[in-house]
Amino acid sequence: MRASRTTHRLTGITGLAAVVAATACATGPASAVPPTRAAHTSTAAVAAAAAAAARQASAGGLTPDQRRRADQLISVFENSTTEIQYGYAENIGDGRGVTAGRAGFTTNDGDALKVVRAYAAVAPDNPLARFAPELERLAASGSGDTGGLPEGEYIAAWKQAAEDPAFRQVQDEQVDQRYFGPATDQADRLGLTTALARAELYDASIQHGNGGEYDALPALIGRTTAKVGPPSAAGERAWLDAFFDVRVDDLTNPANASTADEWRTSVDRVECLRRIAATGNDDLDGPFTVTAFGSGYTIA
Q1: What's the pTM value of the predicted model, to 2 decimals?
Q2: Phi, psi of 163 (to 5 degrees)
Q3: Where in the sequence numbering do the catalytic residues fall?
Q4: Which fold would CATH assign to domain 89-161?
Q5: How confident is the model at residue 94 (pLDDT cuts 50, 70, 90)?
Q6: Does 13-81+186-299 carry CATH code 3.30.360.10?
């Protein structure tokens, strides 16, 4: 679980459905179509829809373009830019030591350690390898004290490593395994279908984590469902709006006191997604513009 630093991947299945529907309308009534042709059209449409659904499922319920736009939004929230910041690294004073990389991997809780270990597995002689023992100590103790790294050298080494495509790929894989994957599992269990709802859970997964804490994503989902019922009963839009409320309340009143000051300044990342919801862009069709923390961005 990390504090917010307020300072990747086709259109949805609905797009394919529209194409299929348009094709069906163009062919006219079924009685006007020779049986063999009708059967061929139906079979082709079913096969195409099944293939598209399989592609969508393999991407966590998001098409490639939707995933990319979700990543761009999160990058705006995390680093005030639509460009993924693999080389970002600084101590933001939230008690978690150094926060670094595209998803804010921190030194006090094992986040950064997992990234460094994964990178060492593919590039043993990398500039971050020498920090592994101290990262292990910090993770074991949950300490935010970075004097033993030392902090300045660790930050410089992280920035240097980010020039390596292998290190950027490691960060992508860690995000998929530890944040996007768990958020997708939650969305599947809830039966959420829109790209916007899935992007919101993905963003919450990165900021709040996926553990058993009161502030973590599973707890936020539990409180939302207790408030309005599951999406199948409340309706996805009503459930998502309630989730926005629950998350804002958690950001302004977190159980973890060390995050309080930073999280209270990050509420606009939720309100930004709520503003997108108000436009009706549930599929995250692009390009579109957003305002977050007083600045405007174009999501391509």
Answers
A1: 0.80
A2: -80, -15
A3: 78, 94
A4: Chitosanase; Chain A, domain 2 (3.30.386)
A5: confident
A6: no
